[in-house]
Amino acid sequence: MITSRLRLLLAVLLLTGLQAGAQVSTYLFVQDSTTYSPINGTVIGDSLTDDQYFVDTASPLGGPLTSGPGIPIGFTFGYAAGNCDVFGISANGWIGIGSGSVNLSNTAPYFPLSTTAGGNIIAGFARNLAAQDGSRLEYATLGTAPDRVLVVQWTNYRKRGNVGDVFNFQIRLYEGSNNIEFVYGQNSCNINSSFVQVGMIGGNSNDFNVRASLGGGGWTGTVSGVLNSATVTLNQSELPPDGLVFRFGAPPPCTAPPVAGNASASAVSVCPNNFVTVTLQNFSSGPGQSYQWESSTDNLNWSPIVGAISTAWNQTLLATTWFRCVLTCDGQSAASTAAMVELNEPTLCYCTTNLGGNCDPGSYGFIDLVKITGTPLINDNSGCTGTIGLYYTDYPDTGNYTATLLAGSSYTLTVRSSFNANESVWIDWDRNGTFDVTEWYDLSRSATPNVADSVTITVPGWIIPGRTKMRVRNRLASAPNSAIDACTQMASGETEDYTLTLEDPTRLHPTATAQLLTVFPNPARDVLFVQLPEQVFTGILSVTDLSGRMLLSNAIRRKGDGLYHLNLGDLPDGWYILHLQSSYEHRVSRFARIRE
């Protein structure tokens, strides 16, 4: 027969298991008051304790080691680290918890919540503290299952190097509810004002729950800290009153099946390789719930995004993409409604405002000829085409204003200016909607008026077929017009844009030339994940730089779900083109490697 006591115990144990792994940022804060009740526990350290860590019961005086087997909590405590059973103590007013062992190493040991790495830290009164005559540091696990509580207590501590301080406080961890309390006794501070950190941090620096002072409100008027570096003021008039309680309540567990809500995107359309952020809205939450973002290019076939396991995600786009998030609780899953982000055509993405210039009659001069030999593009005797004050012209994609260029082919580009000009041209070969410095052609730094200048352009073999832009700019010869000046505001000359069509006649299936290869993460650090198309079982996967030079080439064979792991080896940081050549098609993708 199951007694009511046993039912209660089972319910508490179930709740504890579900709450393990809760984000500490979701804990609810309540301020309360009580009678401060000192404990008589296991004493560690002594009156000379200063900066010691206590991570092993075999070393009661502590030491400099920040990791060890830990001190038993006495029960299982659910936290961001999962189900924890041990803890360690820093004499500086804080503890860390873990499972099987503890690691208290920290980038900011006196203000541990400011760490850049997280670390599952709970700080009741964290700063540079030290013991003095009459000080005690001790711990005890009180009560009986399922209502036990771990108490860690500092008695008569002081700011290091100070006299006249008396700080008494406890950190309490509660079995079952997984609540955390900071309880303060009688405290006094000398004339030296300071700050302390109060709160907790989870497994990373973005998961925190800290208290902060607000305009002299003292310890009874704190607010939630916006940054993990937030502090509470400590001086003679701003002290925690005797019996003050700061309680952080663990949130209730997730409910199954979860309410998945809807995905929302930061933009309805973006330019190629620009970031978009998707967030989850109107969803249920709670400890034990997991999140997995998925993407699709047709809103029918979905693929999980590696590493996208929180309520928000951002990435660059290579095609129009739908995003949704799959929520799972207690083995039951639900998918949010999807958000579509459209990929703008590159020709809509260039800088076209605040370009400046001046080609008015009687002033500097203008671009009078743009020509690509072997194509229809011949814009001769064009004069100053920009209106007064606006010296930018975007020519239509028709007639003698446009050209079709073939991958791997070379052409002669000719420009003529009506004055002594500095002439530059950019062609957006990678069709990313920007004129990169690697896409710049230097025609002349000091062109002779009304004399044409020419340069040979070679279309890279890796181009993605489609429409792109060419920009021609000139300005006074004494002024800069270099690779970085495609969007610079100028005081002379003019700017002309032309639409070009890039084609690759070597493609096996011309109807598939615009298809892109799905890769992630982008940018990548050491490994690039490549999702092979369903029909591809064997092929050649290669990497070229933006000039078309081959850098890597691997023969591949499909395994499992077709997710190929490409080790980037010694490739330096920068932009690259990934090619997949199979008997079915040739797919490409542009990606960046960034290791720092």
How much strand? 35-45%
Content-based structural category: mainly beta
Question: Tell me about the biggest sheet?
Answer: 9 strands, antiparallel
Assembly of the depicted chains = single chain
How far is the N terminus from the C terminus? Answer: 62 Å
Number of contiguous helices: 1
Helix content: under 10%
What is the total number of structural domains? Answer: 4
Number of strands: 45
- List segments where confidence is low: pLDDT < 50 over at least 5 consecutive residues: 1-20, 508-514
Rounded mean pLDDT is 89
Tell me the overall shape. elongated
Describe the structure.
With 596 residues, this protein is mainly β. It has four domains: 4-249, no CATH class; 262-344, Immunoglobulins (Immunoglobulin-like, Sandwich); 350-503, Immunoglobulin-like (Sandwich); 510-593, Immunoglobulin-like (Sandwich). Helices cover 3% and strands 42% of the residues. The protein contains one helix and 45 strands. Strands 3, 5, 6, 7, 9, 15, 16, 17 and 18 form a nine-stranded antiparallel beta sheet that branches. Strands 1, 2, 10, 11, 12, 13, 14 and 19 form an eight-stranded antiparallel beta sheet that branches. β39 (518-520) and β40 (527-531) form a beta hairpin. The longest helix is centred in the N-terminal third of the chain and has 16 residues, at 4-19. The radius of gyration is 33 Å and the shape is elongated. The model is unreliable at 1-20 and 508-514 (pLDDT under 50).
Summarize the structure.
With 596 residues, the chain is mainly β.
